[in-house]
Amino acid sequence: MSSVKDFINNCVILAVLTINFSMIKKFRKIFSKKNTQIIEFKAEFKQLLNEEKRTKKRFSLDEENLYPCLSDNTAQTGFDRHYVYHPAWATRIIVKNNPAKHIDISSTLHFCSTLSAILPVEFYDYRPAKLELPNLKSLPGDLMNLPFETNSVESLSCMHTVEHIGLGRYGDPLDYDGDIKAINELKRVLAPKGTLLFVVPLGAKDTICFNAHRIYSKEQTLNLFSDLELKEFTLIPENEEDGGLIRNPDQELLNKQFYGCGCFWFTKK
User: What is the pTM of this model?
Assistant: First the structure.
């Protein structure tokens, strides 16, 4: 038994050493004199030091506080297409609906914090955020057992969240059908004629990328919500050349997706 443990421990140590050695080689390559970005970085630092000498010194500028950002000098500003577009999509719908209060389940905090400037928002998460803003309540909540009465929530969102449930990434128990159980909870608490904004990764094929997330086809998503009414379906294509928010995309575009973003607006009949 001890020999097995020793073997496992040796394998772990070897793996760690291999990873560390690979990282060291990578950093050495990045910071080698042959790396043109580093050469330019060093030259610009030296130039700024010289400029400092010709004016009133207002900051501490030294090598101790170097913070190389070598990939930001781009022709265009890059951004995460999923996490910029889907809150923009949801905010426009909520503002148009103008509910007295909106309840969000574990979506991005950027969305909740911004929306709270417009109307009262309650944010619930398995790991509640210590976020303090007027009009915003950040509270503990389990998507598998939501703290609401049946048919009670008129304005509800759960965006880029359900795909993680049951995969253990955030400390939740492993459950292959955890996403279905979470969806059933969303449907349970949604009020008749209420609004549910639901967002998940969307692709041509239903896939689990363990332990990060699930990717859903449009067909499976609609089947999971077959007892609700679809008011709007919008796609955020993974490739920017295919556009931003594409309402009612055709099948050809859907077939091109591996990790697109599906935005669904449902209401309870």
Answer: 0.84
